[in-house]
Amino acid sequence: MTFDPIKDIPSLEGKVVLVTGGNAGIGKATIRALARHGPAKIYLAARRRDAAEATAAELEKETGYKGIVVLSLDLASFDSVRQCASTFTALESRLDLLFLNAGVASTPPMLTQEGYEFQFGVNHMGHALLTQLLLPTLLQTQAIQEDVRIHVTSSNAAYIPFLPADGINYESLHHTGDHKPFVLYGQSKLANALFARKLAVMYPTLSITASHPGVVKSEIWDKDGGGLFSFVLRYLVIPLRVDIDEGSKTQLWCATAPLPKVQTGAFYFPVGKLHTYKGVSANQGIIDKLWEWTTSELAKHGATGWPAAK
């Protein structure tokens, strides 16, 4: 499928957008593309505020769009996630497009502030809490304006053959022992895909998708985790990489193409190619277990739960 963001994205007049990890990589490319279509605001949420502000200034100069607002967001800290959501909801009563785009890969053995394996904590848990906190605004927007979407940036790493038989080894998520970066990354990306699929069932009035952006030339691959990850990175990943503008196209398509074409709960490969769920990603028991585990873990840290669907 051909998709030209300049020609094929419709007017976004009046819409409010939030992109996590928007200071670099495909998040930055996503904001650049959306800015050219005139949304009311684009919120760039990122950990490094100085880098985010520099990106916002660069994109404003490049596109002429003056509606980029920077939010501080460290997905490895639930306190930071809560503050980000609180800041956003104090500024806005509307949210049309939420891109859960930020991610890390090949990190050294370490835990998030709440004690989760770092890749899983950032890529899944932080985004899950942010989604829970922003859902009331998303649902409120949908009640007024039907087309409201959430997009989760996953990866084909969700389907690597090295994952545990049940997809996710939950015992591996609270310690740094037996550190296998590529497997842990795959678990986090599988969680992204399963989370999007379950979220679509829980909130059928929203359009919720996940995608593999392709193997992209971005900062996420700048670290070498050693072992199997090093082999995969050097011989299978780097030779196939595409530029960030190309890598952003699938999530841009998911967020802006006509809804009859975009199926909620679906997983897409570049560009707009529907992926058939299979194996662990098609196992309802595994999907439900992740949802229940995530909900329970968030509750342990003070989360109030998922809002009722409207």
UniProtKB/TrEMBL annotation:
It comes from the Eukaryota. GO terms for molecular function: oxidoreductase activity. Keywords: NADP, Oxidoreductase. InterPro entries: NAD(P)-bd_dom_sf, SDR_fam. SUPFAM superfamilies: NAD(P)-binding Rossmann-fold domains. PANTHER family: RETINOL DEHYDROGENASE, WW DOMAIN-CONTAINING OXIDOREDUCTASE. Belongs to the short-chain dehydrogenases/reductases (SDR) family. This is Short-chain dehydrogenase reductase.
